[in-house]
Amino acid sequence: MRYLASRFAQMLLVLWVVATLLFLMFRLLPADPTSAFIDPTFTMEQQAEIRAAFGLDKPLWEQYFIYFANLLQGEFGQSFFQQRPVLDILVSALPNTIMLTVTALLVAYGFGVLAGAWLAWKRGSWVEAVAAVLTVRAAPEFWLGMILLAVFGFGLSWFPSGGANSAGARFDSELARLFSLDFWHHMFLPALTLALYLQGLPLLLMRSNMLEVMQEDYVTMARMKGLPESRIVLRHAARNALLPVVTAFTLGLGATVGGNVVVETVFSWPGLGRVLVTAVASSDYPLAQGAFLLITVVLVVMNFAADLLYSVLDPRVSHGRG
Fold first, then answer.
1. 20 and 60 Cβ atoms separated by less than 8 Å
2. Residues 6+ apart with CB under 8 A from 98
3. Is residue 100 within 8 Å of 274, Cβ to Cβ?
4. What is the DSSP string of 84-138?
5. What is the dihedral of CA 296, 89, 178, 115, to 10 degrees?
6. What are the sequence ranges of the domains in the chain?
7. CA distance 105 to 121
8. What one-character DSSP code corresponds to residue 154?
9. Is residue 117 a contact partner of residue 210, using CB atoms and an 8 Å limit?
């Protein structure tokens, strides 16, 4: 419990520091945060009224306390351009990002674990050498995305070129939309792009862990008993090599949620990454601030979960001891 309380306190400290930096970053910029919102033809009185509406006429210290009080109540402010609450915009985009991220990670890690174990079994063969080169030299996300989009989106017209749903599509609920064939049809290319980009880490990690585990005494003992090599690899070596991969998956979930900007931009996927890019490009500071903060929350929480998961899966790990 002491370790859990310590890690939770560290998580809160990180979130407070990030939230403070975001507050200062968007308010201490040389440009007026509302410069893109205020029309040059507005009178000084009209401009003052708009700044007062966003609370920017108050002293910085007072803005800071109001900002944190609103955050504690789940209030992220009002979008300059969309004229909607920032939280509503983020909540509508978050499910698209979560579905894309989880699907891509499951495919990438499922393939990576199996391929990594197989390559460790085939160590020293030409197959391992070729696979290692291809994995290390994986193409960047934007290149993979554009190639898949050009071939399967524009060339063969098998998949949509953008968006998360067809125009005019109606669904009974958000859950029905997320599990509809239309949604998965739109998500196929972005998820495939992300999975191809992410599979290198679990593949190499599983292969490296397998090579270490295959040298352990219990594996040698299993071979001396005459057990089939396939059974040794799957039931003895692979199970024990999975621990770091499971931890990496949890960490990857948080990191990928914040790193989907490229894929979501290439495929016009309405997720957090695209919301962030659009907000920064249009100087919509409340929306950009809220998107940054939400991504940070997801990343920090997943790091916290990964740390706890590792301590649960491996009882040998002793936290808090020098």
1. no
2. 257
3. no
4. SBHHHHHHHHHHHHHHHHHHHHHHHHHHHHHHHHHHHHTTTSHHHHHHHHHHHTP
5. -30
6. 86-313
7. 24
8. I
9. yes
Q: What is the largest CA-CA distance in the chain?
A: 88
- pLDDT in 10s for each residue of the chain, 322 residues: 676 778 788 888 888 998 888 888 877 765 555 665 666 666 677 667 766 766 667 777 888 888 888 888 888 888 877 878 889 999 989 899 999 999 999 998 888 888 887 777 777 666 666 666 666 555 678 888 888 989 998 888 899 988 888 887 888 888 888 899 999 999 999 999 988 888 888 888 888 877 777 676 666 776 677 766 666 666 666 666 777 787 788 777 777 876 788 888 889 889 888 888 888 877 777 888 888 888 888 888 888 877 777 666 555 554 444 4
Encoded amino acid at 206, one letter: M
| Residue count of the chain | 322
The type of residue at 3 is: Y
- What CA–CA distance (Å, rounded) separates 115 from 131? 9
CA distances from 159 to 49, 81, 193, 260, 277 (A): 48, 31, 13, 20, 24
At residue 78, the 3 state secondary structure works out as: strand
- Rg for the chain, CA atoms, rounded: 24
Classify the phi-psi angles of 321: left when phi > 0, otherwise alpha if psi is within -120 to 50, otherwise beta. Answer: beta
User: Which pair of tokens denotes residue 58?
Assistant: 């108050």
DSSP 136-150: HTPPPHHHHHHHHII
Query: Can you tell me which residue has the tokens 């792009």?
Result: 193
Neighbour-count burial of 227, counting CB atoms closer than 10 A to its CB (0-12 exposed, 13-18 middle, 19+ buried):
middle
**How many whole angstroms separate alpha carbon 233 and alpha carbon 238?**
6
State the number of CA atoms in the 13 A half-sphere of 262 facing the CB.
12
Q: Are 213 and 127 in contact (CB under 8 A)?
A: no
Please give the CATH number for the structural domain made up of 86-313.
Answer: 1.10.3720.10
